[in-house]
């Protein structure tokens, strides 16, 4: 079955690589990643090499599927090696490319699993959500990380925000597909400009996730419209400013002592390390948190590129570990006042 699905998946993903984007990435990433870029480029431009993790839904647990995944050679992410890994979260991955079919959305029926890039769970795990905490997912669509957060713990309040109206519909549908009604009642979905959230709800949250709009390297490489791709590239330089503004808003929304996690799905240093450096340099009340331990315990499943930051990790796609790109940074808000 997986072989048939793989062939179908390859056909579906056999889009034309956008030369404008590839040339742009080539110039930037060959400098930033050095020799590693050759392998990263090969994986990113070869959808047949891509892997898909299977996140099981604890609210409608698929016991039969779990047995099937074991038989097919899938293994659990981290395999118990990560401290504080929530026992309620089960994610399976295979070392070979391929994917199982996605489930259709059916009103009143909870889906049993969610397909995702395994690296996208790292920001969720870095947040270390606990039962009863108030958490904000500032840029929440399509909803995968919100779903993953709810596999980890039962928050007292989860605020999922998405400014884009089309993506907001996608977010709502994702939540309805995976979360039972009693929990839906502790979730608020809003359509606010994330840059205004801090003023709207100051010091409201224990934990904040900013999975920021970014140069989505995987999808940009397969832009079908080269003119649109050129426009995206020219607008790319504006993204770090937006990301910084979102982080400043998130800091305002975070209570003193709270945890903030920033993530992107791009390799770009300007949108990753440089954004975090700017935040640390301009906010005396924000402290970096060392997350190098995650890289040490996850090296058998992910390949990491050096970031030069103790608080930041960068997952890069590699042969047999085709996860990422995913940048994750973890910060903490102290009790002192910051400079803006």
Automatic annotation (TrEMBL):
GO terms for biological process: regulation of mitochondrial translation; rRNA methylation; tRNA wobble base cytosine methylation. It is found in: Mitochondrion. It comes from the Eukaryota. Gene3D superfamilies: 6.20.240.40, Vaccinia Virus protein VP39. InterPro entries: MeTrfase_RsmB-F_NOP2_cat, MeTrfase_RsmB-F_NOP2_dom, RCMT, SAM-dependent_MTases_sf. Its main location: mitochondrion. Keywords: Methyltransferase, Mitochondrion, RNA-binding, S-adenosyl-L-methionine, Transferase. One of its GO terms (cellular component) is mitochondrial large ribosomal subunit. Belongs to the class I-like SAM-binding methyltransferase superfamily. RsmB/NOP family. This is NOP2/Sun RNA methyltransferase 3.
């Amino acid at each position: 079955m997986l072989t048939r699905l793989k062939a179908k998946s390859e056909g579906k993903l056999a889009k034309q690589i956008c030369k404008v984007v590839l040339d742009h990435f080539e110039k930037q990433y060959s400098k930033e990643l050095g020799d590693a870029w050759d392998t990263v480029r090969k994986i990113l431009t070869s959808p047949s090499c891509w892997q898909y993790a299977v996140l099981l839904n604890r609210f409608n647990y698929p016991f039969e599927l779990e047995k099937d995944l074991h038989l097919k050679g899938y293994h659990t992410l981290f395999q118990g090696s990560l401290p504080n890994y929530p026992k309620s979260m089960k994610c399976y991955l295979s070392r070979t490319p391929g994917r199982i079919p996605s489930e259709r959305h059916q009103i009143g029926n909870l889906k049993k699993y969610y397909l995702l890039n395994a690296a996208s769970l790292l920001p969720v795990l870095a947040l270390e959500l606990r039962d009863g905490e108030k958490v904000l997912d500032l840029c929440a669509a399509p909803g995968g990380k919100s779903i993953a957060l709810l596999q980890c713990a039962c928050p007292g309040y989860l605020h999922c925000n998405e400014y884009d109206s089309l993506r907001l519909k996608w977010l709502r549908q994702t939540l309805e597909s995976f979360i039972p009604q009693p929990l839906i009642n502790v979730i608020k979905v809003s359509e606010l400009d994330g840059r205004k959230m801090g003023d709207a709800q100051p010091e409201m949250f224990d934990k904040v996730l900013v999975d920021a709009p970014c140069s989505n390297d995987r999808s940009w490489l397969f832009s079908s419209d080269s003119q649109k791709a050129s426009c995206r590239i020219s607008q790319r330089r504006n993204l770090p400013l937006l990301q910084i503004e979102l982080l400043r808003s998130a800091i305002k929304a975070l209570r003193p002592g709270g945890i903030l996690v920033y993530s992107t799905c791009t390799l770009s240093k300007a949108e990753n390390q440089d954004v975090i450096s700017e935040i640390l340099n301009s906010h005396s009340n924000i402290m970096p948190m060392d997350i190098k331990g995650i890289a040490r315990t996850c090296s058998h499943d992910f390949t990491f590129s050096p970031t030069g930051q103790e608080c930041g990790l960068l997952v890069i796609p590699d042969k047999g570990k085709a996860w990422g790109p995913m940048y994750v940074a973890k910060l903490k808000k102290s009790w002192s006042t910051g400079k803006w």
